Amino acid sequence: MERWSGKVAIVTGASSGIGAAITESFVEHGVKVVALARRLNKLQELAATHGKDKIYPIQCDVTKEQDILHAFKWVEEKLGGADILVNNAGLVVPSAVIDSPTEDYRKVVDTNLIAPAICSKQFCQSIKRRNTHGHIFNINSIAGHYAEAIQIPIGMYGASKYGLTGLSAELRHEILLAKLKIRITNINPGAVLTDMVKVVIQASDDVLKPMTLRDKDIASGVVYALGAPEGVEIYQLTIVPKNSIIGILTPP
């Protein structure tokens, strides 16, 4: 991790949960973080706990392309560009596809798939212009690999995460063809005890804790992949709770 100290990371969905844990873990390793989320007050609170020039909060709704472009432009102008991108912002609408309005489809796909594509495009173009090294993390899900095993309605979430799996593969191919110095890692967590999971599985923390991961577990996985030797690319990293076969929750 030493070679990333002093570098700049962009983390989407950084105001809470996995995004906040990744942000704090990066700061602990000397990485400056541009934290993006809709809730600016939460980002500012996070930044205030770490002191000046460690976390840079920017309000950003990743479903709005102009917000993303504004954030990347700010990073280029103020910090010289980002070296790490974490596509973490995610949305689940826990209702059946056959009963959901089309607008719910669009919100989920725009957040979980289109936004990572736009962010990755901007990131790769920046790395190419600067001829430097970079790393993209897509915070995916086992729902993007084993959706058939999930026995509760998660709407378009699984479909969007399968799309993110495909996007990760496409990006890796394109990066290799373009001879860019960028590694890409697809992080596939099982159920993580976050506000999003609590919405899907309406159960108490006492019930959920034994069968879920902590947000810091995912942050540790990101740091592990980022710190891999220069000639190594950890392309897929699946993290599941020890007490669950594949980390998928069924109704309690």
Strand order of the largest sheet: 3-2-1-4-5-6-7
Q: Number of helical segments? A: 8
Q: What do the pLDDT scores average to? A: 90
Number of strands: 7
| Unreliable segments of 5+ consecutive residues | 246-252
What is the general shape?
globular
Q: From the structure provided, what is the oligomeric state, counting identical versus distinct chains?
A: single chain
Tell me the β content. 15-25%
Helix content: 40-55%
Order of helices and strands: EHEHEHEHEHEHHHE
Briefly note the structural class of the backbone: alpha/beta
Q: Could you tell me the radius of gyration in angstroms? A: 17 Å
Biggest sheet details: 7 strands, parallel
Distance between the termini: 40 Å
Please give a structural write-up:
With 252 residues, this protein is an alpha/beta fold. 43% of the residues lie in helices and 15% in strands. It contains eight helices and seven strands. The chain has helices at residues 17-28, 40-48, 65-79, 102-130, 157-178, 195-200, 205-208, 215-226, and strands at 8-12, 32-37, 55-59, 84-87, 134-139, 182-189, 236-239. Strands 3-2-1-4-5-6-7 form a seven-stranded parallel β-sheet, sandwiched between helices. It is globular and about 45 Å long. The protein starts with 7 loop residues before the first strand and ends in a 13-residue tail after the last strand. Residues 246-252 have low confidence and may be disordered.
